[in-house]
């Protein structure tokens, strides 16, 4: 079996990380195995200790542990420190080092559907959790100046903005307020678990006020076409599904663990085929 890798989250059975990573190990001739571990929030500390004792070479971190895991790690790299969230952990000679590949993976995917530089767009981020943090701080680091954040709990959005080290013009909004002024935004980015399988009919907000040229992006990849993206399509808006971010953040994590670059195209094909579709 070789070295053990994995992902921890709650829920986790929907994850396709084992599919793409185990295929990449086989494709590159690496002796490794990747497993999905369901970890309740109350089990996080003991799980991290157990993974360390087992000598797991690396693992991904997903909802809801991306911020909560930080106190249980030995070190953070610069990106994870800036973002304040971790989605990838590397075991370096027994020390668990946290990284964040979410933001860079997301931006690499999103730019493929944009017609002008990302810095020239006004954006709305829905959500204020670990994924939102990774995307927001990376966008700000890349020079994006107009990024508002809406969340059910406005104080969490305010906290995210206050903690950002990079200059930008951001407002914290309620979901209701954001919905009313959707016409202000070029890109709408959905970062929460709303719409994730099995709750596939759920939407974080309605898009009826969005401008006709807006890009609607949802980081959920199962289902590929979330209820939010279906509404965006019906309104004639440009859509961007979560497969790209999932693949590119995963490819960056794989490279951190193995020092080898997997095929993003191969990973993308696996996810689309598994979900029974070819595009959003």
Summarize this structure as a short list of keywords or feature phrases.
Rossmann fold; 6-stranded parallel β-sheet; 6-stranded mixed β-sheet
Provide a compact summary of the structure.
This protein has 280 residues and is α/β, with parallel strands linked by helices. The chain is built from ten helices and twelve strands.
- What kind of sheet is the major sheet? 6 strands, mixed
CATH class category of the largest domain:
Alpha Beta
Low-confidence segments, given as residue ranges, are none
How far do the termini sit from each other? 35 Å
Net shape: globular
The secondary-structure element order is EHEHEEHEEHEHEHEHEEHEHH
Beta-strand content: 15-25%
Total count of domains:
2
Binding site for shikimate: 15-17, 62, 87, 102, 221, 249
Keywords: Amino-acid biosynthesis, Aromatic amino acid biosynthesis, NADP, Oxidoreductase
Protein name: Shikimate dehydrogenase (NADP(+))
GO molecular function: shikimate 3-dehydrogenase (NADP+) activity
List the helices and strands and how they pair.
Elements: E1 3-9, H1 17-28, E2 32-38, H2 44-53, E3 58-61, E4 75-76, H3 78-83, E5 88-92, E6 95-99, H4 102-110, E7 123-126, H5 130-141, E8 147-150, H6 154-163, E9 172-173, H7 175-180, E10 187-190, E11 215-218, H8 227-234, E12 238-240, H9 243-258, H10 264-275
Parallel strand pairs: 1-2, 1-3, 4-6, 7-8, 7-10, 8-9, 10-11, 11-12
Antiparallel strand pairs: 3-5, 5-6
Helix pairs in contact: 1-10, 4-5, 4-9, 9-10
